[in-house]
Design a protein that fits this description.
This is Pilus assembly protein. The chain contains four helices and five strands. With about 170 residues, the chain is an alpha+beta fold. The strands form two sheets. It has a three-stranded antiparallel sheet. It is rod-shaped.
């Protein structure tokens, strides 16, 4: 027969073990959500780069706000966490600030810049995952790796001009 003292020890042991098991269970769930979020950030950069490769350069600021991307955003991720860049054949950034939604006055200069673009880069910047339970107990935030995707530039939203022989230009 158990004495009162033994019942008290059993209850203390149960509380210690149950607390440890619950903390471990919540940690597993938190880390699963963290890894899911990092994979979603990776997928967002892949899709943003794909959209930037086929959309016009002037739409670069609208791409992070498209519904097909925002549906993938993990908790705490916003359009400000995506940076889209256009790169030349050497991987150096090309200044595309002159590409606006209205046709420019000096189209020859812009065409020369446009012809330099060979790659599109989408990067996730300044994103940290905030744990729910673990941050409350231990003040932990998850630093996400820097994800970036680089794809070859495709049409960049421009229809190719047909040559005098009827062939479509493929040099851009």
């Amino acid at each position: 027969m158990m004495t009162k003292r033994q019942k008290g020890v059993t209850q203390v042991e149960f509380i210690i073990i149950a607390t440890t098991v619950l903390l471990l269970l919540f940690a597993i769930l938190e880390f699963a959500a963290y890894f899911y979020s990092t994979q979603m950030v990776n997928e967002v950069t892949r899709r943003a780069a794909r959209l930037a490769a086929v959309c016009h350069i002037s739409d670069r600021d609208d791409i992070p706000q498209l519904g097909s991307l925002t549906a993938l955003y993990p908790a705490g991720f916003t359009a400000d966490n995506i940076e889209i860049s256009y790169l030349d054949a050497d991987g150096e950034a090309v200044d595309v600030s002159g590409f606006l939604t209205t046709p420019p006055a000096d189209s020859a200069t812009l065409q020369a810049q446009f012809d330099q673009v060979r790659y599109v880069q989408a990067r996730a910047i300044n994103y940290n995952y905030n744990f729910v339970v673990l941050s409350t107990l231990l003040s932990i935030t998850g630093n996400t790796p820097s994800f970036e995707t680089i794809l070859p530039a495709e049409s960049l939203g421009i229809l190719r001009q047909a040559t005098s022989t009827g062939d479509v230009r493929t040099d851009c």
